[in-house]
Write a structure and sequence with these properties.
This protein has four helices and no strands. α1 (3-28) packs antiparallel against α2. It is mostly helical. The chain starts with a helix and ends with a helix. The protein has helices at 3-28, 32-61, 65-92, 98-117. The longest helix is centred in the middle third of the chain and has 30 residues, at 32-61. 25% of the residues are buried.
Length: 121
């Protein structure tokens, strides 16, 4: 299995987790749209961060250990800052639900765990 297929499987499993969250939202919540906006925003940012993480690790393999450590740490703090900005913007925006954003950000992690549990990775 090549790397693009691997990333595709993770994103597909994460989309399933996001779809289940959206279905639960439609059943339970009265105001559905803000949650769905937050879920979409969180999922999109999380998927982009997965791709950025893959590219960072691929680039770090070709560096010396000291350079790789600095590079990975700088990318880690960059991703952390982006997560903080996304959550802060969803707090400030009235039309985006914070819980939906956080669940969207966690979809990639849940999809990865789901694949590991099903032994598809």
């Amino acid at each position: 299995m090549d790397n693009r297929e691997f990333l595709g499987r993770i994103v597909a499993a994460s989309a399933i987790v996001g779809a289940v969250s959206a279905i639960i939202d439609v059943i339970v919540l009265k105001e559905r749209l803000p949650f769905l906006y937050g879920l979409g925003l969180g999922f999109a940012v999380s998927a982009l961060m997965l791709i950025q993480n893959y590219r960072s690790l691929s680039a770090a393999v070709m560096m010396t250990p000291e350079q790789a450590q600095r590079y990975i740490f700088s990318r880690y703090y960059l991703r952390l800052g982006i997560y903080v900005l996304v959550i802060f913007s969803s707090i400030k925006a009235a039309h985006i639900n914070v819980a939906g954003t956080v669940i969207g950000l966690l979809c990639i992690k849940a999809g990865t765990v789901l694949l590991a549990l099903l032994k598809k990775v």
